[in-house]
Amino acid sequence: MGFNYVIGQNYLYDAEKVLKLVIEHMEEDEESSKAIPPWVELEYAHMRTLAGSGSQVHFTHLSRASSNTLNAAFAQPDSDVAASGKATATCHTTGILDLMKERGIPLSKVCLLDPKAEKALSPEDGDGDDPPRDRTSELRVLGFPNRHLGPVQMTTDTALCVTKLVVQDKKRLDEIPYVVNQEFPTIHFNPKESVEMPFRYIATGSDPLLPPGMKELLHEDLNKSFDF
Description:
Layout lengths: L3 E4 L2 E3 L7 E5 L13 H14 L4 E5 L3 H11 L3 H7 L3 E4 L4 H8 L6 E4 L22 H5 L5 E2 L8 H12 L18 E5 L2 E4 L6 E2 L2 E2 L5 H11 L4
Helix pairs in contact: 1-6
C-alpha cells in the first residue's frame, strides 16, 4: 500500500502493507448529551466491519466525550478483534495533521478523497507508484494528493468500503455494485412508510448496504418527526 487515505468526512490511507484509513470527524456532538450522534456511531462501527481484519481505522478530531463514547463501544481484547474479522479502531482528539506529524507521515503519502479531485481513485493508487495530488477544502489547500470516488455523494462508511474495494481488492469504480436505477435509494419500513436517502449506497441484493441498526434508527427518527 502506498498511501494514507483521508475519507468522507475526510478519509486518509497509509503506506505499509496494511490498509489504514483515517476519518477526520466533522460532526458536532449532540447538544443534549455532548456525545457523538447515534447515526454516526453506527456508521463508524460499520467501518470496522467493512475495512476488515488486518486493517486499521483511525477517527480523528473527536471531542473528549465522543472519543470516550467510541472507545467504550469499540472496547474489545485484541484476540477478539482478530476473531471478529473487524479492523482495529483508534480514537484521537487531535486532528489529521497532528496525527501525521506525530507519526512522521509526509503529505506525499496521504491521499485525500475529494469530490473535486480531477482523477478517480483506481486500483493502481493502492500500489503507491503514482502519488495522487473540503473540511475537504481546508485540507486541499495544504497540497494533499487527492482522488474522487465518483460524482454522487456517499455516506462515510460507503466511501470507506469503496476505497477498500478499489485499492485493496483491485476493483475499478465502475465495477462496484451500487443500488441500481436510483442515485438516491428509498428505504421502505412498511407499505406506508419510507424515506429517500440523499446518498449513493453499495447494493446488497436489491437493498442498500446500511450499518446494522441504521434502518431502525431512521424509522425511529421518521416517527419522531410526526410527534406533536
